[in-house]
Amino acid sequence: MTAPLIELSGLTVRLGGRTVLDGLDVKLQGRAIGLLGPNGAGKSTLINTLLGFYTPAAGTARVLGRDARKESRAVRARVGYMPENDAFLADMSGVRFVRYMAELAGLPPREALERAHEAFFYVGLGEARYRKVGTYSLGMKQMAKLAQAIAHGPELLLLDEPTNGLDPQARQRMIRLIREIRDAGQMRILLSSHLLRDVEECCDEVLILKAGKLAAHCDLEEERRANRRFLEIETAARGAELSEAVRAIGCECAFFGVNGSGGGRLKVVLPEAVEVRDLYRLAGERDVLIRRMSYRRNSLEDIFLSAMEPAALGPEEAASRPDRGTDGGS
Amino acid sequence: MAVHRRTYRPYAGTLTGPAWRFLVMARYAALDLLESRLVLVFLVVAYIPFLVECGLVFVANNAVARALLGMQGASPLDIDAAFFLRALRVQGFLAFVLAAAVGPGLVAPDLANGALPLYLSRPLSRTEYVAGKMAVLLGLLSFVTWIPNIAVYLLQASLADDWLGGHLHLGRAILLGSLLWIAVIGLMALALSAMVRRRLVASLLMCALFFVGVPFGEIWRQVMGNMWGRLANLAYLIRLVWSDLFGVAPEVMTRRGRVIPDLPYWAALGALLFVAAASLWLLERRVRAKEIVR
Fold first, then answer.
1. Are A61 and A68 in contact (CB under 8 A)?
2. Residue A319 pLDDT level (bands cut at 50, 70, 90)
């Protein structure tokens, strides 16, 4: 059995006399893990702790099987980090900046130069690679930060708010790149963001923090699969008749009629053998007008809002939810 | 491989040794500095005293050259401890100017641009970061302190018969004295730039600390009636230490015919070591990937 990508055991971090992370217990295994939470939830602190920048007051954090504090050098040799805030060397050209960072990560000068060029083309800044980083726009600086994070070929990429301050187009480019990196399968990703859409579009596992505590941990892929067959159908009339027909082909179905009009809403669970087109066929045969049909599933927003509820305060509460274990078993 | 191919591939090649990886920083910084014409001109100017000293050593050891210059008999110029001490004082001042001009530019931009997390997210410790930056200053300041002085020393040793055996301590004094001065001003330059995060302000602050020490020491003496105020005078402190290393009595200072006693050697050395230690402490506080806001 392979070691978890990230394993937190009772991780507590105190900064300036304040408890920022409070007893986190979780194992993360996904290809792309989203780290969600409102501002001040402890997302960046967790990333900084994984990099060995902060010392845990209690507990441990293991990254790629190594202790983030005691073996921080070994951990940092295998990760790439894109910080949240501005972080660059303004007087260097883009390619020299990335080459420099790759050499510091241990690449010989020649290989570092080659990979710096590659990384710049990969993030779409090939034409601007000889310009000084200080002259880049915000979007270009974000891409340059991503380039320096991947140039040395890390196994784990830590992205701290990578779409911060980007316009919609630049955000789309960044999200597309992150997904490409994820799908290429060469690197695993830990993406910290307070934007649900970023995480939903890129990640297959999500960890939600609230006030330094674990509010929820779920496997997004699992959630998507589990909820795929829930359909909500709204009919103008003869909903009960359609409901009977749907049940007859083996679907679970509930009908909610509306004031004797005959119309209403059907909630349908489709078994493997039944497709959506079968429902259209049944409706067509019975001359039932379908006004609206949509998949209903727990979106990340639902999960997030649920995690932010006052009840979702700690790992115990989170663990008690059947779909959101805290031990990474989902 | 075509670099324009828009694909990503993992790195499977060899890695450089981790022990000396911090020197990557020194290499990049040195290349940047040598691109500056101002630095290059300064380095050339810093070798003018060296050329003069070489000429003096040559004349002092060559009767023909002395005759050509119209000097009769034995050399009027003694190539002794005082000669090398004077040479080191000149080069030491130039080294200070260079450290004040160049040193802050090594750390301040990293802090101002938030680049420390990038450095320290690599397999690189904070100590190695400071060592990498210090290595640049060590190389550069060595170039204007002990390297030219040792060259003059070796020239004298090669021209004068049976001179080296009796003057080995001078070589040691040049080396130790230079390295102590480089450590003090190098760490001070890095620490001040880490503290103020602005290159120019750090340079000015360093110069201010250097030059303000002179009047401060005098005012202290007038008010308190003792010499301890001179502990703030860096130039004076290093002069005392160098005098002791070279075995030359410090210049007797007089005021209205009254001899002013010098500070003890140990106090001067202690004060310099304190400056270096305080600089290290400041660097330890400031060179962090993330600041903790209380």
1. yes
2. very low
Structural domain harbouring A286: 229-295
Residue A239, in any domain of the structure: yes
Closest CA to A26 of A45, A9, A13: A9
φ/ψ of A325, rounded to 5, equals -70, 160
A315 shares a domain with A195? yes
Is A101 among the domain residues? no
Structure confidence at residue A177 (pLDDT): 93
CA distances from B111 to A87, A137, B192 (A): 9, 20, 12
The yes/no answer to whether this complex scores an ipTM above 0.90 is no
3-state helix, strand, coil in chain A (%, to 5): 35, 25, 35
Q: Indicate the average pLDDT of chain B.
A: 89
> Does the CB of B18 have a partner CB in chain A at under 8 Å?
yes
What's the number of domains chain A is made of? Answer: 2
pLDDT, average across residues A282-309: 79
Q: Give the pLDDT mean for A300-308.
A: 73
User: Which of A73, A92, A104 would best serve as a mutation to test chain B binding (most B beta carbons within 10 A)?
Assistant: A104
Q: Is residue A159 located within the same domain as residue A218? A: yes
Task: Determine contact, residues A249/A296, Cβ cutoff 8 Å.
Answer: no
Does residue A182 lie within any of the structural domains?
yes
- pTM confidence score: 0.82
pLDDT at B248 (0 to 100): 85
Q: 216-275 in B: which are within 8 Å (CB) of A?
A: none
